[in-house]
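Input set for joint prediction.
Command: fold jointly, output tokens.
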Amino acid sequence: MVEQHIRVVLVDDHPVVRAGVRALVDAQDDLDVVGEAADSAQAVAVVAETKPDVVLMDLSLGDGPGGAGTTRLVRDLPSPPQVLVLTTYDTEADVLEAVDAGAAGYLLKDAPPDELFRAIRGTARGETVLAPSVATRLLQRAASPAPKVSPREVEILRLLAKGLGNKEMARELLVSEATVKSHLSHIYTKLGVDTRAGAVATAIERRILRP
Amino acid sequence: MVEQHIRVVLVDDHPVVRAGVRALVDAQDDLDVVGEAADSAQAVAVVAETKPDVVLMDLSLGDGPGGAGTTRLVRDLPSPPQVLVLTTYDTEADVLEAVDAGAAGYLLKDAPPDELFRAIRGTARGETVLAPSVATRLLQRAASPAPKVSPREVEILRLLAKGLGNKEMARELLVSEATVKSHLSHIYTKLGVDTRAGAVATAIERRILRP
DNA sequence: ACTCCGGATAGCCGATCGGATGATGCCCGG
DNA sequence: CCGGGCATCATCCGATCGGCTATCCGGAGT
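tokens >
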């Protein structure tokens, strides 16, 4: 058997997308969709059972663990498959998280089918496949230092987006106003902004806050 | 011919989604996909040519006119088809715009296939079909007055999200600082907030600004 | 053991914001 | 033809913000 079929499992909470990818992929001679999953738990079960070569993973699964977490779970299975992230967004936070979780590639859903097929085949061979726009973003972010926002700071950002003042945040978080201001200063530094409005915008863009 | 097939055209810039919907819809006895379009111009051409009963419209088409504008164009054709919006987001602004543009229904992409089929059939019969979550939002928004932000105010919001101060915005827009503050006050009122940070968050949530 | 970092706190101060109030001109739609 | 939304501008003023400097504590890592 020189030419083995590539076994693919789809993980996506949108039935439409699963059907679409299945229709496209199954039409390829060398690619077989051997399973589908709509959430994290299903994904682990299906992958464990079907032992696919490649998992196409959506990042925004409705329920508990997102695509990144699920990627991690799948990659922790014995003889894990390659994971190719196939999603709508290309925010750097998503990409980094996915890559960190063990994803071998990152494609956007608006990619032409050909690109998808090439990505699947490449991923199956162990190559790293990144969508051009994703690769660009990665390089940009690689150049600038990684801004890690602490949990407490995220808390501050949340209240910030609700339009609370420092005094109100302080009351809400049971700390002094000085502490809030301290956190804010750190946030500004990390996000590269110098105003509350800019911080909120950047936080949402960086997916630190969910819109 | 008592039971005429329902002719459907798909408009979506994601090949995967088109393939998915086509696979699902074509598998139904009474539904036929008679055309696809990836952008606004294609959509108008395909609809004019194929005269479908229903158009499944994605709201976020990459290029020029979005789904709402395209809906308007399609509805302005002679003997226009019903338009069923099928998209990822359910922001109230999107829904209102689409309905205003002449859409007969609004479904989310994570809807189960059955719901999609029922929606297509209902739409073809001239019914109005709304996803439950969309209907809920609509009612919520219907209770509160519609916040229409003027173009100039959007301009202000854009600069706001960039973290500019009033003085800087004034310079940027070639108006006085007083004017900027005036706009801001109006924005606050319309968005129901009272801080810049809150305005940015709400504007993004309402999709007035693109994250 | 020592250092680094996140978290919490404090005070100072100039710059800025946001609310209130009022006014002008334009253009659209009823 | 008048009202109303939009855009423009002006002042006043109290509240808030953001930058700066410094201190303290506890846990993680070297």
